[in-house]
Amino acid sequence: MDATTSGTPTIQYHNIPDQPISTIVATLLPAFQRQTRHCFGDSSPGEFPLSANPSIVLHVLTACSLDPQDLAKLEATCSFFRQPANFAPDFDLSLSELAALDMCQKRAIFKPMTSEQRQDLKQRCGGSWKLVLRFFLAGEACCRREKSQAVAGPGHSIAVTSNGVVYSFGSNSSGQLGHGTTEEECRPQLIRSLQGIRIIQATAGAGRTMLISDAGQVYAFGKDSFGETEFGVEGSKLVTTPQLVESLRNIYVVQAAIGNFFTAVLSREGRVYTFSWGSDEKLGHHTEPGDVEPHLLLGDLENIPVVQIVAGYCYLLCLACQPSGMSVYSVGCGLGGKLGHGSRTDEKYPRLIVQFQLLNLQPVVVAAGAWHAAVVGRDGRVCTWGWGRYGCLGHGNEECESVPKVVEALSKVKAVHVATGDYTTFVVSDDGDVYSFGCGESASLGHNNGDDGQGIRHANVVSPELVASLKQVNERVVQISLTNSIYWNAHTFALTESGKLYAFGAGDKGQLGIELVANQTERGNPELVDVDLN
After folding, report:
1. Where are the RCC repeats (predicted)?
2. Residues 346, 405 contacting (CB under 8 angstroms)
3. CA distance 470 to 478
């Protein structure tokens, strides 16, 4: 079985003999079904306690949160971990499978599932609890699910604490801040109507915000439209407080993504649903722009679990988790080569990007800018493709790339996170360093080196450069979010490991969460926002 790793050191078991338990235990205990897991047993001479009482081993495997790859290697190394453990709830499961099931049961999104739903998910992931655990871990790693996060939307911003409390600030002409008004806010303000609801994920579009609760429910406010968000006629009705999306009530949602012409959501089981933009089957279905009903994304991904979705201006990328490994599918508008298939043609149904197999790269994080895309591989390599304007691909030029291409300038950097916007890209390394490249407009790249506060902060950067201003905060950066809209001046957030939020770039609508002095419209250096996300 092929399962991915989480980056944790692999435990080696080469010294465990691969032999029947009867050769280890002096007196073979009678087989029985264990309803209760315990750590007691006889201490008769010659008995091997761990094999006589596998509950001890199971406790260690679960408590150490071993990676699914390590659990699979245990089964391959020793028959003790392959044979049925005779434990409830499934007496036929091996210790490794039971440990994976136990770790799945700790997940908030797994707990409310019925037995039938759990078995369906198991089969969808490949028939193993280890693969289900890998599916959950992959989603948590790329989406900061149930962790603090910040969203730099088009003109407005959302900040979610580790406890699921939500703050919003910035432009509010459509009620997208959720405070019951249309007044701008230049400081983070608590969305009080969400009291008692824990939010685990947030996304923002032009004039619109969507929040996902730990119960899988979706709340939306701002423009009342799942379709064209910038200047379309749809969404003339304004919703100024979070409202439950009724059409998604029966779908347990874990993530949402807002493009310019459509909205997409990801279910707990890894299914992708889309709203709007269905004319001419652009997303594999026939619907009107104002359609409010979710439609399953048809094609290859119907039977393949997806762990992350990201939306560009007119296209969607999906990070899929299969027994053979991780992969990326794309659908939508292909102009500029941003779908990654070596051409500029549109795709009505999700299509596998095969270039990653040729590069021997396992994608773990995917990002969709307005016109270009990026991926981080398990080995820390970064690939970019699409429109290369302003150097946003990081290849030292402004050429387009129609298939993913490794950013060679980052060959000595092990990346763990990537974020993309309107012709801008940020990369976070495993040691917390941040690199950026692309369009320098609005000072959103963070390269402000001038003594007068102006310096070269508006210059375009065609190759990755270390964001020295973030290095000076002396904190490990874990997430970057930047504006992904062609109509708004960009701003950027950097979230640190301790929950501190730093902002820079355009702030003319209060979207930085910092009050600017007279005639100021942006900040070139990262400034601490007065909100504690931990």
Report:
1. 164-215, 216-269, 270-322, 326-379, 380-431, 432-498, 499-534
2. no
3. 12
